[in-house]
Design goal:
five-stranded mixed beta sheet; 7 strands; flat; Four Helix Bundle (Hemerythrin (Met), subunit A); about 475 residues; alpha/beta
């Protein structure tokens, strides 16, 4: 009644009648957009309607399934187990009805693939996870193109199937094909990531979940275009790399804002007086080389340009700059790697930092250069070939690039360098390559992709000073 009175209605009945009219308008528009033919129409053959409705334990069930298009007897066992699982789940009447309308169409769509049995094996766990949330079942039945897309994705990749099982919310991305036609630019991705975080105020948990959902949605869009061969492989790597950079950048900004509110901004002496010190994120490996894959972890190194051990932040509760940057780095890593209800953003490897796992999590630019010039192993210089700043100011990027160039352009004795590179490559091949009876590992075996990478890195190090 309070709501009715606050909106100027004399009583609940008058308010409810008006509300019902508005709801009917909305429902009409919704039905116009999402309406599909009623179950049982010609879109689903009578064959699959009868197969799904039949007794899974009857003698005729297996022959009906195989005659309809599946190829392996084990498929019948999977369907029987699935039906038993659904019975034990005690679905609501609505959920059971929606599942019964979806399954014949789903089974029919599967038989259009080259690997229907394998794909069904991937889809059944997804259906078990989502059967209780009948809105997903309804959405897939009412949107045939979304169902077909889901079937193709599960058929194309076990990794994609597991990704969607873990994050069923991405099904929304399958509905509107226009979302996949115009992928955002690098700048747009960062803008969207910032927007995703801005909607959740100061709630850290909500912010972390929001950024995870943002990444999952964009991964799904990239996957769809990749599998449908609408996006060249090089562009897939570009999109995945830009997405990772946007996520890192948004997380960095969010954590930095929280810390500066508490402690102020790190300052140190510079040309012309006091200047702000900053932290930058350096990408190595696949992220650094702009060749990120779907399951790639991130090789990151954190560096700051603070030049004074005694300098502090300028806030109401000042702390040493070095402590500020340690806190900032720890919080960024926590934001990116923590497993929440919405999943995890990325696995992060920071072992390429100076002194590896035994070194400080964050180092100064000066310490980084001293380490690279005097203590780093040859393989660390190889890794530096693909290193680049992914979060940081233009000024910091120029400082880092100057150091990187000096290290890579050092004069080296070619025979000693070749010996080091070969030795490291043999260790990697022994640890990561396949055995002869397990076929050829295109990345790690002799003549594989890593051999090419090592050849390029050797060329940079031996001739970089010319």
């Amino acid at each position: 009644m309070r709501l009715a009175y606050s909106m100027g209605y004399p009583d609940w009945k008058t308010f409810y009648e008006t509300l019902s009219k508005h709801r009917q308008v909305v429902q009409t528009q919704f039905d116009a957009v999402f309406h599909a033919d009623e179950p049982g129409d010609s879109a689903t053959s009578e064959l699959w309607l009868s197969v799904w409705a039949s007794d899974a334990h009857s003698e005729s069930f297996e022959s009906a399934v195989l005659e309809a298009g599946f190829q392996q007897p084990e498929t019948c066992d999977r369907l029987r187990a699935f039906k038993r699982s659904i019975e034990r789940a005690h679905l609501s009447h609505t959920a059971q009805k929606r599942l019964d309308t979806l399954m014949p169409r789903l089974l029919q769509a599967l038989t259009q693939l080259n690997n229907p049995d394998e794909t069904l094996g991937r889809l059944l766990p997804f259906l078990e996870h989502t059967a209780g949330r009948s809105v997903y079942l309804s959405l897939l039945f009412e949107q045939p193109h979304a169902l077909d897309r889901l079937v193709r994705l599960f058929g194309a990749s076990a990794w994609v199937a597991e990704f969607i099982i873990q994050h069923p919310i991405v099904i929304d991305e399958l509905i509107d094909e226009r979302l996949s036609l115009n992928l955002p630019s690098k700048a747009d991705l960062l803008h969207e990531a910032r927007q995703a975080l801005s909607l959740h105020g100061e709630d850290l948990g909500e912010q972390m979940d929001a950024l995870r959902r943002f990444r999952q949605a964009h991964i799904c869009r990239i996957v769809c275009l990749d599998i449908e061969q609408k996006l060249p492989l090089m562009n897939v790597s570009d999109q995945l790399t830009w997405l990772a950079e946007a996520v890192i950048g948004a997380a960095y900004e969010q954590v930095l804002t929280q810390l500066t509110e508490a402690h102020g901004t790190p300052t140190h002496s510079g040309e012309g007086g006091a200047q702000h010190a900053e932290l930058a994120v350096i990408a190595y490996g696949k992220l650094g080389g702009i060749e990120l894959g779907y399951g790639s972890d991130l090789d990151l190194v954190f560096l700051h340009d603070n030049n004074s051990q005694s300098a502090t932040t300028d806030g109401p509760t000042p702390i040493p700059n070095t402590q500020f940057f340690i806190k900032l780095t720890q919080k960024i890593v926590h934001f990116l790697t923590t497993l929440t209800a919405a999943g995890k953003l990325y696995d992060i490897d920071t072992r390429l930092r100076p002194n590896g796992a035994s070194g400080l999590l964050v180092s100064s630019l000066t310490a980084f250069e001293h380490y690279q010039q005097d203590k780093a192993w040859t393989w660390e210089h190889q890794a530096l070939v693909r290193a680049r700043v992914v979060v940081g100011s233009k000024n910091f990027e120029e400082k880092f690039q100057t150091i990187r160039n000096r290290v890579l352009q050092k004069k080296r004795e070619s025979d000693a360098l070749l010996k080091d590179v070969i030795s490291m490559r043999e260790k990697m091949r022994k640890a990561l390559g396949s055995h002869k009876d397990k076929g050829f590992h295109i990345k790690q075996d002799k003549g594989g992709i890593v051999d090419i990478e090592f050849m390029v890195q050797y060329a940079v190090l031996v001739w970089g000073n010319r």
